[in-house]
Amino acid sequence: MSQTSPPTSTPHPELQGVTLSVNGQERTLTLDPRVTLLDTLREHLHLTGTKKGCDHGQCGACTVLVDGTRVLSCLTLAVMHDGQEVTTVEGLGTPDDLHPLQDAFIRHDGYQCGYCTPGQLCSSVGTLDEIARGVPSHVTDDLNDVSFSADELRERLSGNICRCAAYPNIIAAVSEVHAAQNGAATQEAAQ
After folding, report:
1. Whole-prediction pTM value?
2. Torsion angle, CA of 90/91/94/98, rounded to 10 degrees?
3. Is the pLDDT of residue 187 over 50?
């Protein structure tokens, strides 16, 4: 008769406290430290605007802003952002007071089916901020002179997949907002 060892149980990690400022509201949660920021937003805070697409960081549907920087929320743990500001699509604007990019996406039909739109919007907000701060991308010719262009937009937004292929409309919407913020001459540079 062979002797079998008793089954071993996997210990559960201790829950951990985390405080996030989400869309301007401080939220304190007790979470399993393995919970992603995406699941925290959707399942614990019921902010379902941020979409779970591929859940592997390949589609961009889960893009949010953490302290103003674009982050794929499916690839980061909530506890890693303790004390930080998280902005989701719900925090960009309201139906009565749209963010300029939300308004432009509507007018340029950049939302199409709408599934990728929250990630596209958050990524677009982060992209405009990166360009304004002079953060270079892979296509930036002169690292000391980061300027707005359609090539910069396409490169920076390339991590956000749109199955409806609304890309030209999205580029037009983001270009329009950039032009409104920085003068009409820059809109011509992006075309």
Report:
1. 0.88
2. -110
3. no
